[in-house]
Every structure is written in C-alpha cells, then in structure tokens.
Amino acid sequence: MDNNERKGKEHKEKTFSRRDFLKTSGVAAGGIVGGSLLGGLVGMEHGSNNAQQPESATGSDGAEGGQTAQAETYDARTFFSRSEDFETLAAATERIYPEDDNGPGAIALGVPYFIDKQLYGFWGANGTDYKMGPFRPMASDTHGRQEKLNRGDMFLLGIRRLQEVSQEEHDEAFHNLDEETQDELLKMFESGDVEVPGMRAEAFFSLLRNTTIEGVYADPAYGGNKDMQGWKMIEYPGPRMGWTNDIQSEEFQSLEPESLRSYQGGGV
C-alpha cells in the first residue's frame, strides 16, 4: 500500500468514526430525550466533572501571541452577575455537551461565556421581536413563542429554578451534584415536569440546549468554539474566502479550520 492509499484509508476511517459520533449524540438530528441530544450525550462517560470548575473555560493558559489575545474573550462575565447562576449554567451545558474521547466539552469550548455574551447583547433582549402580546406562555409549541419574557429573563428564571429544584430534591447546589443526578433534573425540565412561573420548563430547556450547541459550533469570534475545537471534531474548515487552489487538486484536501478572525486582522 503506497502513501496516498494509506492516507486515504486513514482519513476515511477518521471521517466515519466522527460521523457515527454525531449520529449517536443527536447533534445532527436534534430532538428531545429518548432520541435526543440530551438522551444521546447525557449518559456518556467523560473525565473529571469539569462543571464544578467553570474557570477552566477561561483559556488563560499562558500561551503567547494570538492564543492569549483570543483567550481573553472567554474570561469575563457580562450578563450573569451572580457566580452561582453562572456555575449552574456551566454545569448544565457540560451535561448537554460533555467532554469525552471525541474532544472537549461545553466548558472547555467556552460555551458558558458564549451564552453570557449573547444574552448581554441584542439577542438576549429579543431586540427585533414583536412584544405587544397577547402572551400565552403555556400554549402549544405549534403556536410559536408565546412568552412575555425575553431570552435573558428566560435564562435567569430557568437557571434559578434549576437551582431551587436541586436544593429541594437533593439539598445541594446543582453544580455540586454528580452527573447522573444532574441529568435527572435536566430531564425533568425537558419533559415539563417542573413548574416555572411565566414559562414552560421545556421552553427553557430547549433554549438552553439549542444555545449550548450554537456555542459549540459558532465561529469563535462570537465567544464559543474555543480554538475551533468544535469544528475540528467534525472536520469543518470554517468560512473561507475561496476554494480555487483546493478544488483544482486531484487529491483529497484536509484543511485546518479558519475563523472570521483570519479575515478581520488585528487578532480581533
């Protein structure tokens, strides 16, 4: 077997294993528990319980040059003023997208900071949404979004209700619970078995899950997907200005991902 055949075989095996991971995890298909993202990911074993140490997502590892500049976007909260709220958020995102043999989890990818950054801005305030009512927060999903709350309010209310349920059921902070117990509580929210004033528990869980996945795969310029590790796991090359040099090659091209930062200059 020559070098080209060996490289082709190795790439094929690598590609299929990662595609199988996405199918198993539910990232490609979405959904709810029992064929869901949480159902597929939540039981996976991974290393230490990183959810108890959200500071590990800061990326302040003493690296030089561009890595240090990039890491600075992860290490400051702008929306969550209470540490306990942010710790609960971090723990919940890590259970939705945990670290395992395929790569880093939500915390290491900077997802909690991505969510914090998005909630602090225009998106968190539902800046372009119609806001005049009528409001029917308990209406069916088929009626569209019916909450009077904006996304920032939904996150704060949902996260704090998750803390309350954790204390009521286990007399312990959510981020201090073992992973299996955390999963049980998140499933209660997903199935709507918890009452949350002003909104449906499943609406909060859906928002939390979707935003977590967005933080894993969004361009790092938005605050998540640290070091493009989310893209590297699925071999996504990122947004590129052109493909001319690559498409003219008769050999398979394996490209390192590039972020929007590559075209903005100044390391911003």
Strand content: under 5%
- Estimated structural class: mainly alpha
The radius of gyration is 20 Å
How many helices does DSSP assign? 11
Query: How many separate domains?
Result: 1
Envelope shape: globular
| Main sheet: strand order | 1-2
CA distance, first residue to last residue: 45 Å
The residue-averaged pLDDT reads: 76
H-E string:
HHHHHHHEEHHHH
* Helical percentage: 40-55%
Give me the count of strands: 2
Low-confidence parts:
23-74
Describe the biggest sheet?
Answer: 2 strands, antiparallel
Protein name: Twin-arginine translocation signal domain-containing protein
Pfam family, one: Gluconate_2-dh3
Keywords: Membrane, Transmembrane, Transmembrane helix
InterPro entries: Gluconate_2DH_su3, TAT_signal, TAT_signal_bac_arc
Topology (elements, then pairings):
Elements: H1 3-25, H2 37-41, H3 66-71, H4 83-96, H5 111-120, H6 151-170, H7 179-190, E1 195-196, E2 199-200, H8 201-217, H9 229-234, H10 244-247, H11 261-264
Antiparallel strand pairs: 1-2
Helix pairs in contact: 5-8, 6-8, 7-8
Q: Can you put this structure into words, describing what you see?
A:
With 268 residues, the chain is mainly α. Strand 1 (195-196) and strand 2 form a beta hairpin. It has a two-stranded antiparallel ribbon with strand order 1-2. It has one domain (3-264). Helix 7 packs across helix 8. The chain is built from 11 helices and 2 strands. Helix content is 45%, strand content 1%.
